[in-house]
Amino acid sequence: MKMLNMSLVAVVAAVGCTAWGTTFYVPADGTLQAVIDRGDCKSGDEIELAAGTYSGPGYLNVDFGVKNILVRSADPDDPEVVAATVIDCQGAGRAFVIQGGQTAEAGLAGLTIINGNRSSNGAVYVNNWSTPTISRCVIRNCTGMMGGAIAVSNASPTIERCQLVGNSATSGAGIYITGGSPVIKNCIISNNVASHGAGAIYSLNIGHPVVWHCTITDNYGTGNAGAIWCSSTNMGIYGTILWNNNATKGPEILVGGAGSLSTVVDMSYCNVLLSGIYILPQRILSGVGNIEVDPMFTEGDWRLSAESLCIDAGDPDYGAFAADALAQAKEDEKDFYGNPRLSGAAVDIGAAEYFVEDVGEAEGANVRLWPKVINLRGQQKFLFCTITLGGHGSDEIDVDSILLEGTLEPVWTKKFNRVNELVVRFDMDSVAKMVMDHPADTVTLVVQGALLNGEAFEASDTLKIYRQKGNQGNNKNQNVKDNSNKKGK
Ligand SMILES: [Ca+2]
């Protein structure tokens, strides 16, 4: 009894939902299908797969029936556990069928599914107005005609923080939607190939699918739609990176298809290669806040590098644009990598939120740098910086510890204890020298310091860099007025 309680506590921590019923264990309690079919396995129960690779009968075409259950790995939040908990369909069928009217508490969490192959669709099929949650799964190298990884037919699953990579299909190599309003959020959809079209997502649909903060790159549609194909559908695409996808017609997104129904796409706060958008006559694509910049992923994954202009470029109202469909987008939402979805001044575009791991031991550090533009040809004398600490007063800060970018000391400091602010000034000439060779037009500068008791803190703010046209900064000194004769306290 005590062990059962312990496992329930662990489950609550892992999946973040209310405690369910019994947890069954595979393979200890039988094959996956055998456990689902047990008379004592009821709606509300969970099935935990131990790390390992599962294939063949009992692990192929696994059907939830009408049971509202969650099938998960031992720790869906641990990428190593997810990578080690594998259902290998060995090209003999698909992995899961969920078509019993399941609710959002049911579904899949933290599994890796590979080598699914079925004429209709590859790995997971969701049907019959079911609304399960498919969370933190990796689906790789699966193939099917309609939906290489996931097919949604008259259903509204939530597909979140999943990685769909290297799948193939005739249409919709990542996800194929025909009917329903699925929400696809914080997912990576990359390197999938569709022979007819829609390397990432195909939507032929009466419903309102929403794609929210996904990173969709390097997919390939042979003729049509490298990434997303909206055909006779009403779709919302928000906060998403569509980049470097490939097709003859509409490499990033193709709006419209052969169907006679109208197609309306709202695309807002996305980063998309505009030349990759193809809109057929009488179809509509509209939106606000979209940008077109190299996302500047970090080497080897889909995180944003510090210079990426996708940082803080999402909806300033954090999801208000998609609020109807995303009632579940909360302050504690996680990005693909498990970091806070909302970090810094605003939500970022893409599946990964730029997140500085170590912000120091003194909590709640916040810095505001101003002016907001560093004019490399200007006559600004100081960069001002206001430092506040959520849990500490400004009188606790050691003013001699303050550094900009780990090197530059302030030339002036003053504590305003009444409002708990420390204001410092940095010499702008020194700041300009620091950033003049910075490759982007915005720069995030880190301010660090310590309390008198030794606790460190760190926080950053982002500024624009203004360079006069044709100037690369190499003759800057000729144009800067010499204001250096009276600095310091
Ligand atoms: Ca942000």
Describe the structure.
By secondary structure, the protein is mainly beta. It has 2 domains: 264 residues, Pectate Lyase C-like; 107 residues, Immunoglobulins (Immunoglobulin-like), CATH 2.60.40. It is built from 4 helices and 42 strands. An 11-stranded parallel β-sheet has the order 1-2-5-8-12-16-20-24-28-31-34. The N and C termini lie far apart (68 Å). The N terminus and C terminus are likely disordered. The protein binds calcium ion. The site of calcium ion (CA) has 9 residues, from loops. Calcium ion (CA) binds next to loops.
Short characterization:
The chain is mostly beta strands and 489 residues long. Helices cover 7% and strands 35% of the residues. The chain is built from 4 helices and 42 strands.
Short descriptors:
single chain, 489 residues, mainly beta, Pectate Lyase C-like, Immunoglobulin-like, 2 domains, 11-stranded parallel sheet, 9-stranded parallel sheet, 4 helices, 42 strands, 7% helix, globular, disordered C terminus, binds calcium ion
